[in-house]
Amino acid sequence: MRLRQQGVRTILSLQTMPWDIWPESRKARHYGLEYRNVPILASPLEPCDEQVRQALLTLADPSLQPVFVHCLLGEDRNVFVVGLYRMYYQHWTPQAAWDEMIRSGFHSALRLRGFTTYFWKHTQIPNWVQRGGASVPSSGAR
Q: Using CA atoms, how far apart are residues 98 and 83, in angstroms rounded to an integer?
């Protein structure tokens, strides 16, 4: 598996459909990769705080790094999570993180408005963020 050859230790999937998750988790384990799934629904509603927190803590866990994070198309959920990671763990400004999200293919359309609303309402570093573990996560390409 190419990810393993590139040094990736963990796959963080943000997928929500079991028929996508199950085969991928089996394949990851077959190749000796840790597999984590934190299902984040892409919708007009804001994502669940606990799922966003879980995804970010997975990315920041040094024992799991480097982490390859992805969703179905690699344009919205994973870019959203990486944008928050940039602010919380790498101390990027909200605007710099947002600009990278847009360049990476993030859609701020009405059907995904929940991500945009959540992002701009959560620009302050939350109390649960642990300092350290600030390596750059890999993001799934389209």
A: 7
**Residue type, position 73, single letter:** L
What six digits make up the tokens of 140? 């799934």
Q: Report pLDDT digits (tens) over 30-87.
A: 999 999 999 999 889 999 999 999 999 999 999 999 999 988 766 699 999 999 999 9
Helix (H) or strand (E) holding 77: helix 77-90
Whole-model pTM: value is 0.87
**Distance, CA of 41 to CA of 45 (rounded, Å):** 9
pLDDT digits (tens, 9 = 90+) for 2-26: 888 889 999 999 999 999 899 999 9
Nearest in space to 55 (alpha carbons), one of 33, 77, 30, 34: 77
Q: Which two tokens stand for residue 12?
A: 């963080």
Name which of 75, 98, 84, 72 is nearest 137 in CA terms: 84
Task: Give the rounded distance of the alpha carbon of 73 from its chain centre.
Answer: 13
Residue 31 structure tokens: 């190749």
Other residues' Cβ atoms within 10 Å of the Cβ of residue 52: 21
How far is residue 34's CA from residue 44's CA, in Å, rounded to a whole number? 31
